[in-house]
Specification:
- By secondary structure, the chain is an alpha/beta fold.
- It has 2 domains: about 130 residues, Rossmann fold (3-Layer(aba) Sandwich), CATH 3.40.50.720; about 90 residues, Regulator of K+ conductance, C-terminal domain (Alpha-Beta Plaits, 2-Layer Sandwich), CATH 3.30.70.
- About 30% of the residues lie in helices and about 30% in strands.
């Protein structure tokens, strides 16, 4: 997979290096040439560029990129500008780092796909999460077992938990389901926020857009999400 990471501070550089080590193609961008030089041997590509410049960012291969991560932490304005530009460029998946509740609200208003709070999420954990298509969040219980949040695959929409029978087929348990409902942010913009359904029953029916919270081995969860 190909990733663009904006900002080579501690979080952005750690994420870029980890994704590169996992075998992905990473284009890491920063306006500080010293940082670009520092990480050029550890990241697939490093580019010196002003991320608030539309013309500059439009030269990046965004159409062929799977995920763009705006990891700028110290410059609120640059973060918002870069996020807005990538949104305008129509990237496939846009994630942005928030450094305060207000910053998060502004990013939500722009319409990013996911907000990152680095104090809650390590770069290594995020890299693992990005590697599994469809995964929204993950928590390592042991080296082998994980709790994963993932979008329900289309083939299960309309089925009940009993009919899907994840436990027998994949040795994976459904802990609960997150289902979106409409809320309004500080600016009055309507947003979809996930609400927990609680303890799900065998007759609970999967709906489009549901987020599954499942427990099992990472390889078994991957089979559940991606097997035909």
């Amino acid at each position: 997979m190909r990733y663009i990471v904006i900002g080579l501070g501690y979080f952005g550089s750690s994420l870029s290096i980890k994704l590169t080590e996992m075998g992905h193609e990473v284009i890491a961008v920063d306006k500080d040439m010293q940082k670009v030089e520092n990480y050029k041997d550890n990241v697939t590509h490093t580019v010196c560029m002003d991320a608030s410049d539309f013309q500059a960012l439009s030269t990046l291969p965004t159409a062929e990129t799977d995920v763009v991560v705006v990891g700028i932490g110290e410059d609120f304005g640059a973060s918002v500008m870069a996020t807005a530009i990538f949104k305008q460029l129509g990237v496939k998946r846009l994630m942005s780092r928030a450094i305060s509740p207000l910053h998060q609200t502004v990013l939500e208003a722009i319409g990013v796909d996911q907000i990152i709070r680095p104090e809650q999420e390590s770069a290594e954990r995020l890299a693992k999460k990005l590697e599994m298509r469809g995964v929204i969040d993950s928590f390592d219980l042991t080296e082998d077992y994980n709790i994963i949040e993932a979008t329900v695959p289309d083939r299960y929409i309309g089925q009940t938990i009993a009919e899907a029978n994840f436990r027998a087929k994949y040795q994976v348990n459904v802990l609960t389901i997150l289902r979106h409902k409409e809320t309004r942010n500080l600016f009055g913009k309507v947003q979809q926020k996930p609400a927990v359904l609680g303890v799900v029953k065998a007759e609970t029916v999967f709906e489009k857009g549901d987020i599954l919270v499942v427990f099992g081995k990472i390889q078994d969860i991957d089979k559940l999400l991606h097997s035909a």
